[in-house]
Amino acid sequence: MADIKEVTNRPNASAITERIAEKGYNYPHLATSAQIQHNLEHQHLWTSIIGEVISGQAEDPNTLNKDPRQPPQEPIPLLSGYPPHRVYTHPDEQLYMLENGIREDDLEPERMFVGQSWTLRHMAAVFDRLPEFKQKAEEHDRSVDPTSMQPGSEDPDPTKAEKLAQYYDKKEKARLTKEWGSQRFLLAMVDKGMGGDGTVAYYVVHEGDVKPRQN
Amino acid sequence: MDFQPDLPIPISYVSGRYLLFSIDAVTYLRREHHICGVLIGTLPQIPQQNVFLGLPLELMPEEARLLVDKGVACIVDEAKAHDGMNTLLEEDRRRYLRDLESQGLHVSRIQSDRKERNREQTLKKIEEKKAKAKAKASAVAAAQASTAPEESSTPSPKNAAIVDLFSAEDPRPSSPSTASTSVPPQTAMAITPATSYPPLPTPSPSSYLPAPTVPPSYPLFAHLHSKGYFLSPGLRFGCQYMAYPGDPLRFHSHFLVVSYDWDQHIDLMDLVVGGRLGTGVKKGFMIGGAQRGIDEVDSEADRVDTVRAFSLEWAGMHMALIFPRKDSRAHAPRYRVVLA
After folding, report:
1. What's the complex ipTM?
2. Single pTM value for the model
3. Which of A123, A203, A209 sits opposite B255 (nearest CB)?
4. How far apart are CA B30 and CA B23, in angstroms?
5. Which of A43, B29, B48, B174 is paired with B270 by a 20 to 30 Å CA distance?
6. Is the pLDDT of residue B286 over 60?
């Protein structure tokens, strides 16, 4: 009898569940963001993950009367970090890299933002606040490692270093003209419903019309 | 060749559909205003042949509305516009029929001219061949003296057969003298005009119908159109619109477009479905909408300016083999996760 009792005992909660229970979040989707962070860190090997929260407008319960540019009622959690590989390369940027013999491994890692959203208002709010968070994240990076923001300084090959410098110039220009795509973030979604297996799927979301990759 | 129709172009409103019957208007709108519509006309005798359709061109209400708002087109009630057909004066009627007949004569003349030219060319070729064969035959005859006299006669029946073949449409025996002096044909081609405003007057502005009512997705449609995209109905591809970066005859589409209201809940499953479908066919999945509702502004045009759109692509980041980069920054991972 004792054996059977042992078998029917509930198994221990997973590390992530314990962590979420320990922290106690005000909103369910903030807890979800903890799960996303865990997934990014341990399954996708992202590093230096930092979190931000776009605070909601809790005092106004009626979203319909609101200015459309205002953020939504609920806070939107936003994560950022460094993926081990680039998550997204614009098709024109890829062409430029191919033409100039630049490989992905030569480039500095890029900080990528991860958020969740469920109306157009949420998405717009994320994009509106993205530049601010990017700046904050850069400050954070400098405080952690002051030399990390200088690209390719220890590169032994001078022609490659020059090409890379040209590439970064071009990239900065492309950022302004948006020819290599506009602002983007990763939309994370977790399968938590009935029978959900906790799988996290990611989608790249661009602001405006960015032509698709031909992969 | 670039035909410039009189503006505004009348769009025929027939039982809830917006139709165009003039091929000149159709090509003009496609060329100048990036409006493609959908050809829906089949042949009355073979309606099941629906691979290549012809006139009329059906416009989405969004397309018709856009053209009306731009002042390029107007909506005309087709049934009402044809009331005038009954009261057409006998003289006008006769003039119209005469006009049609003269057009028909013109067409048949052009056709017979072309036929005549073809025939002359063929005859000339045959003559040349004959001359060549004769020259060859005489050369052979000269070389071989009189060894095989019947061989030289073989080319002529062959040539006669060719002449018969090409003059099959013309029962008269072909000879160089009659070919040059053929009489013009008496029968006019029957012309079936696609539009009816030569006999009817062009509709007056007072008879125009109001601008078409459009679905809530109109602002996104107009926004993308203003950015130079060609849009077509997206039902075939599981979305609201397909957005092409140029003429659909030359380009693959870039986006599957779905419109949402500003505070409308977006089911994440719809994003997965659209995002995966789009990525699977090398397209982006675009969602968007106007920030303001129709009751908050004076006109649809005001909403178009407040449109925000977002394009989605699958990040391809799950269930993949993941290896750390050699120069991965900060805390280098001490283990690797391998999923398959």
Report:
1. 0.72
2. 0.70
3. A209
4. 11
5. A43
6. yes
